[in-house]
Amino acid sequence: MRSAWLVAILVLLLGCGHKAPPLPPEKLTPVGIVHVRPIVSPEELVLAVEVSDSYVSKGRKTDRVFLYAKRCNLNCEKCVDIYRYSSKPGWFFIEDSVPEVGRCYKIGGRTEEDVSFTPYVFLLFPKPFPNSPELEVSHLDASSVAFRVEGCEGVLLYRRDPSDFYGYMPHMVVRSSDVVDRTVVEGRTYCYEARCFVEDRGVWFVSYPSTEVCVRPEDLEPPSVPKNLSGFYHKGVVKLVWDSVEAPDLAGYYVYVKKGKKWVRLNSRPLKVTVYTYRIAEKVKDLTFAVSSVDKRGNESAKSKPVVINW
After folding, report:
1. d(Cα 284, Cα 238) in Å, to the nearest integer?
2. Can you tell me the distance from the alpha carbon of 295 to that of 159, in angstroms, rounded to the nearest whole number?
3. Cβ(287)–Cβ(238) under 8 Å?
4. Do 238 and 257 contact (CB within 8 A), yes or no?
5. How much helix, strand and coil, in percent to the nearest 5, is found in the chain?
6. Considering only CA atoms, which of 126, 125, 147, 127 is closest in space to residue 138?
C-alpha cells in the first residue's frame, strides 16, 4: 500500500514543470505578405510591401519579421539580393533601379519565431511613363483643399509638411481631374505635388512630379449677402428689417448708413437679430441704408441692395 502511494507521488513530481506541447504546424502559419505595390517612376522603382503581424491562428502575433527581396531574370533564375531587413511588421519600402528589360522579383521572409511565410513572386515589364501633370488649387477653405489636375488618366497626390519630405506612398489615389483633400486642419500649412500614373498588371507607372503647391487652409468665404432689406420712418425713428442669412458660422449683421459718398457702420458688434432701430439726428429729408452679414472669423459679405428712407 505504501509503495503505491510512493509511485503516485513520484508520477506527480515528474509531471510538474513539463512544457506544454508545441503548437501543430498549421497553427504556426503566418499571414505574411498581404500587399505588394510596385511603383515605377523615371527616378526609381519602389516596392511597397505590407507584412502582417498575425498568424493564421487568431490571437497569436509576432513582434518582428525578417524580409528579403531578390531581383531575377524573366525565368525567375539567376537572382541577386537587393534587400534584407528586419523590423516590426507593417510597411516596407524596397528601392531598386528603373527596369529597362523585364524582371522577376521574389519577396519573402520569416517571423521572429523563425517561421517562414509564403514568398511573393511577380514579373515586371517596362512601360512608357505618362507626362507630368499641371496642379492648380481650385478651392480652399478651413476644412478642405480642392485641386484641378490636368493631363492624367489617374492621379497620385502626395502631401507633406513644410519641414518634412514626401513619402513613398501617395496621400490620395484618384481617377479624376478633380481632387479634394478633406483631411486638413485649419491654420496648418501643407505642400502638395501630383503625378500622373497608369496601371499595368498591378504596377503603377508614374510621371515626374508637378510643380509643388503649398497652401494654408483657412475660411476666407463670407456668408451670403442679406436680402429684402426694407424700412419705414415714424416720429424720428427708422425701423429696418431684412431676411436672415443661413450660415453655420454666422456671427451676425452690420448696418450701414450712407453719408455723402461714404458708408458708415452703425453697430460696432454684429447684430444677432434681423431688425435695427436708427434715431434720426440729421436734418435731411432721406437716408440710405444697407446691411451685410459676417461670420465668426470676420469674413464679411458685400452690402445688401440699399434702401432709401424718406420722411
Report:
1. 13
2. 30
3. yes
4. no
5. 5, 50, 45
6. 147
Which residues, other chains included, contact 308 with Cβ-Cβ below 8 Å and sequence gap of 6+?
Answer: 286, 287, 288
Distance between alpha carbon 74 and the CA centroid of its chain, in Å? 38
- Sheet with strand 145-150: strands edge to edge: 134-140, 145-150, 178-181
Closest to 174 measured CA to CA, from 143, 146, 216, 142: 146
Question: Residue ranges per domain, the chain?
Answer: 28-124, 134-215, 230-310
In this structure, are residues 239 and 231 in contact, taking their beta carbons and an 8 Å threshold? Answer: yes
Cell of 21: 506541447
Arch. (CATH architecture) of 134-215: Sandwich (2.60)
Determine the Cα–Cα distance for residues 209 and 27; give it in Å rounded to an integer: 46
Evaluate whether 238 touches 277 at the Cβ level (below 8 Å).
Answer: yes
State pLDDT tens for residues 146-179. Answer: 999 999 989 999 999 999 999 999 999 999 999 9
Fold adopted by 28-124 = Immunoglobulin-like (2.60.40)
Query: 230-310 has which fold?
Result: Immunoglobulin-like (2.60.40)
Distance (Å, rounded) from C-alpha 251 to C-alpha 272?
7
Q: Is the pTM for the entire model greater than 0.85?
A: no
DSSP state, residue 300: B
134-215 and 230-310: same fold? Answer: yes
Grid coordinates belonging to 52? 502582417
pLDDT in tens, 72-85: 999 999 999 999 99
Query: In whole angstroms, how far apart are CA 117 and each of 59, 109, 121, 126?
Result: 18, 6, 13, 28
Q: In the chain, how long is the greatest CA-to-CA distance? A: 128
Query: Strand, coil or helix: what is 205?
Result: strand
- C-alpha 32, offset from chain centre: 27
